[in-house]
Every structure is written in structure tokens, then in C-alpha cells.
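Memo to structure team: turn this sequence into C-alpha cells by end of day. - J.P.
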Amino acid sequence: MWVSRIGNRKKKQAYEESKRDKNAVFSDFFHMFFGGEIEEEQETSVKKSKKNPPIKGENIETAISISVEEAFYGLNKKISLRTVDGKMKTFNIKVPAGIRNNEKIRLIGQGKAGQFGGKNGDLFIRIEIEKDNKFELVGYDLYTSLCLTPWEAALGTRVSLEGIDDTVSIYIPAGIESGEKLRIPGKGYKDGKGGRGDLTATIKIMVPKQLSDEEKEIYEKLKEISTFNPRSSVYTSNKINKEA
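Reply from structure team:
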């Protein structure tokens, strides 16, 4: 039994050596015709991919300023930016109507270049809506000024107020003062849900810088007959109570 086991072991060893020799012959044959480049390249590629995984490029952010009306209606705008290599590049961007203040527009793949096969970063353009001569945007509400003559403010009247997309007729109560505000619902900025904010008009009473002879005469007459004194204690007290 012991001898038989040794014999089996020798046969198994001889078979394994023969198998190794055949594999060696096949390997030599393969390298003779194809060389070891394919295998080496694959190993190098695997090692490289493990060592340097794809890295996405950095995002870039910049800001542009537009007016309230441009933001309300939307516009196409060209901007020029300096790239990392110092060259100027022009981008055409579409600002959608009703964009919010500080909202960002994303240009995919226009940021810094990726590394090791990674994707480029993105370019983000932040929209700054500036106050202009006509409108100021606060949330969804628009604020504007409404200038009146002294007699319009004293007597009351109906005037036309130019909104951002149409003209509205509003009533001015008699005795209105500078600084008072009139609110027109639904005439403000777009809220993104099909609705609108409000339009608020701040009253400014304007005094003419130059008077004709006739106008001056009327003002002189008014000065003579009027008992109105805005500096009197009674008027000041009433004004404080009204504001409170």
C-alpha cells in the first residue's frame, strides 16, 4: 500500500510537469508571434486607471447685471469671459422671462477641463437684477415713483401710471402727501406660477422750478388767502397721528 501511494504521487507530479511544459510552449509560441505588448499594455492601463481615476473639471461662476424690464421679458445676451489660457471666449446665453434675482443659468461643459478622461466642469452665470430709473424689484413686488403737481395732490385727481407691461389708471385722493404709497394688486413681477406680485407707487409731489407770470400771481394769491401751515403744532400732531 505504501509503495502504491508513492507511485501515484509520482504519476501526478509527472502529469503536472507535462502540463506546465505545454503551457510554457504555448506561452513561448504566443510571445513569438504577438509579443508581450498586449498583456503589458492591459496591465499598465489597469494600473493607470486605478492610480488616476477620471476627475471632473472645476465649475466656474460669474455674474451679469440686467434691468428689471430685461428680467421681466427675458433676453438673449452675449458675454465674453477670459479662459484659463488667457484667451477671450464669447458665450450666447438666453435669460428666461421672469427669472429671479440671483438665480443661476448653467452652461454644461463650459467650465474648466477635466483630467484623466473626466468631464469638463460647468459654467454658472448668476443673474443680478438691478434697480433702474423706473422700477425696483423686491421679492415679487415692483416699486416705482408717481410724480404729482401740488394742485393734483391738493385737489385729488385720476392719473395714468405706467407699469412694467401696461398702463393703469389710478385715483389720487385729495390731500395726499409725498412719501405715501398706493398699491396696485397683480401688476408686479411674475411669481413663476402664473401669478403676479403687486405694484406699489410712492408719491412724489414736484414743485415747478420756473413759473410763468400768471402762475406766480396765482401762487402769490394762494399765499395770501391760505391758512395752511405745515410747521404748526396742530398740523404736526395730526400728521403724526395719521401715520401712527
